[in-house]
Structures are given as C-alpha cells and as structure tokens.
Amino acid sequence: MFFLGTASLALAHTVTGRDADFVRNSTGTHIAPFLYLGAKHMVTGYDHLLFLLGVIFFLYKLKDVAVYVTCFAVGHSITLLAGVLGGVHVNSYIVDALIGLSVVYKAFDNLDGFRTLFGFQINAKAAVLGFGLIHGFGLATKLQEFNLSREGLVPNMIAFNVGVELGQLLALTVILFVMTQWRRTADFGKHAVLANVLLMTAGFLLIGYQLSGYAFGSAV
Prior knowledge:
Helix 4 crosses helix 9 (153-183), helix 5 (62-85) packs parallel to helix 8 and helix 6 runs antiparallel to helix 8. Helices cover 76% and strands 0% of the residues. By secondary structure, the chain is mostly helical. The protein has helices at residues 2-6, 17-25, 31-43, 46-56, 62-85, 92-110, 113-118, 124-144, 153-183, 188-216. The chain is built from ten helices and no strands. The chain has one domain (2-219).
C-alpha cells in the first residue's frame, strides 16, 4: 500500500498542466516551446539527475565528465528520437523501473561493489551508454502519451532533444559546483559512502514505485 500511495511521486517530472495542454494540441513547428519543454523535463527529472549525480560522483577531471556525459547524451538521444519519431513503444512502468535500476547500479559501482563482491568490474562507459538508451525511452514514453501531431513533429522533437541537452548541461553545472565544494571538505571520503548508500536506496524506491504501478496500474 505504501508503494501504491506514493507511486505518483515517481512520475512527478511528467508533462502536466499547461505544458501538457500545449503538447497535446500543438500542430506545426514550435521550436522555442519544445526547446523549453525539453530543458524543463530534464531539470525536473529527478531520476535522470540522480543517475547523473552517480555518474560524476568520483570524476575529478572535466575531460572524464565530458566523456561520460556524452555517452549518456548519445544514448538517450537515440531512443528518445526512435521512440517518438520511429514509433517504438515500451511499457513506461518497466522503463522507469529500469531507470531506477540505473541509479542503483551507479551507486553500487561507486561503492566498488562489483569488484568487492563479484571480482569483476563492468565497463563503466558502456554501462552509462546502455542506461542512456533506457533513459531516452523514459523521455519518449512521456511524449507518446499525447499522440503528437505529425505536422512539425521532426523539428519539434529535435528541439525537445536539444532542450534536454541544455537542461542536462545546466543541471550538471550546478551538480559539479556543489560536488567541487563538497570534495574540498575534510569529511568527503567518509560522507561519500553514506551518500551513495542513500543514492542506492533512492534507486530501489524508484524501482518499487514503478513495479507497483506496473502490477496495480489498472486499479489505480
């Protein structure tokens, strides 16, 4: 009952209100509005932001941050456009549960869990790219709910995707600033373990929310 009562929280970054009305009723090309919606969707998409936080948690060089974030961006761009423009449909609850799993994976990886418990290390760049593909489907499912007009769809979706990247860049700038300040504190190493445990817990909660929605969605 706890998961049923809180499952809607896991969809808090979906398109609602005036934004939903605009997307549902729009026809033709609307570059600026879809650019804005893409940026807003990423900035308010806490599941995406939790994953990004996990990805950059122990990255100290901007070059490494750029590589990993590019892997993520390429992944979610492919499936966002494939989902909306190519008509590839997946169950939104399952996709969002896998997005929760991506958060669990990255926190577990940050804690060196794979090497400690299983004696091997997953290729981190490949994993970020793979989970980026899943995150892209998460973005696509939110838009597929509106049965978008085909008129102007391609430029609108490209604008939306560019907006997602701009929103990601904005969010990443804030996250990196906060992380940089935190890393300068004497207790960062000790607190980092707790932070990743909490990050993993949040991922498990997201999985629980979405699987409860999948199991009982017809009754909610």
